[in-house]
Amino acid sequence: MSPKAKPIDADVILDAAAALIESDGVEAFSMRALAERIGVAVTSIYWHVGGRDALFDSLVDRLVAEMAALPMEGDTPVNRIAALARNQRRLLIRRQHLLAIAHERDRTPTLFLPVQQKLAAELAEAGVTGTQAALVLRAVQVHVTASAVMLFSAVRGPRHQEEDPSLWTADWPDQALVAALQSPTDYDAVFEYGLSAMLAPLASPPRTNGRVRAARSSSA
Q1: 10 within 8 A of 49, measured Cβ to Cβ
Q2: Contact 206, 127 (CB under 8 A)
Q3: CA dist 49 to 6, 8, 45, 102, 128, Å?
Q4: Residues 77, 143: one domain?
Q5: Which residues contact 14 (CB under 8 A, 6 or more apart)?
Q6: I want to staple 74 with a disulfide (CB 3.0 to 4.6 A). Which of 18, 55, 58, 80 is the partner?
Q7: Virtual CA dihedral for 201, 204, 206, 209, nearest 10 degrees?
Q8: Quick one: 45 and 65 in the same domain?
Q9: Percentage of residues in the chain with pLDDT exceeding 90?
Q10: Which residues bind DNA (predicted)?
Q11: What CATH number is given to the structural domain containing 35?
Q12: What's the whole-number mean pLDDT along residues 193-217?
C-alpha cells in the first residue's frame, strides 16, 4: 500500500508558505514553488487559501496574532516591558520577510499595535503616562526594531566590516577600545545594554525635589 497522503488544509499551506518565504525571501516566492514544496497542484492552494494576495494577507493576519500573543514575564512593570521587548525582537528576527510583506500592505501599524498597547499599560502601572509614556514607548519600539533589522542584515546580508580599526590612529588614547572593535559585534549584548539603560530610570519611582531634600536633611 502507498503511504496515506497528509491532509492539506489552509494551515498546512500557510506553514509551508511562511517557511518558504523565510528561507528564500519574498522575491523568490511563487505559488508553483509552494505547490512543489507541499506536493500538491497549484489549484489545490487556490482552493484552500486563494491567490497570492489572499495568501499574503493570511500570513500577515497570523503574524498579527503572533505579535498579540507574545508573553511578557516578570513581577514588575519594568521586567515585563523588558521581557516583551526581547520576545518581540526574537519574533521580528524570525519573521523578517513576513514583516516586509506586512509593511508593503500598510499593515505595520496594526502589526505593532498589540505590543504598543501592552507597553502602554505597563508604563501606566509604573506611573508613566501622557507624552512621557509616548516617548518611552517609541524609544523601546525603535530600539527593538533597529536591533532586529541590524542583526538580520548581519546574518543574511553580504559580509562586510562594521568597524575598521585601521581608521583609528595609533595615538588614540584608548587602545583597548580599538582592540575591542576588532571583534565581531555581539548584537544580543548590545541590545541588552541599550534596553537596560533605557529602562533604568523606570526601575526607581520618581522622586520630587521635596522628597530628595527631605532625604538629605534626614541623613545630615
Answers
A1: yes
A2: yes
A3: 17, 11, 6, 17, 44
A4: yes
A5: 49, 55, 58, 59, 62
A6: 80
A7: -100
A8: no
A9: 66
A10: 30-49
A11: 1.10.10.60
A12: 67
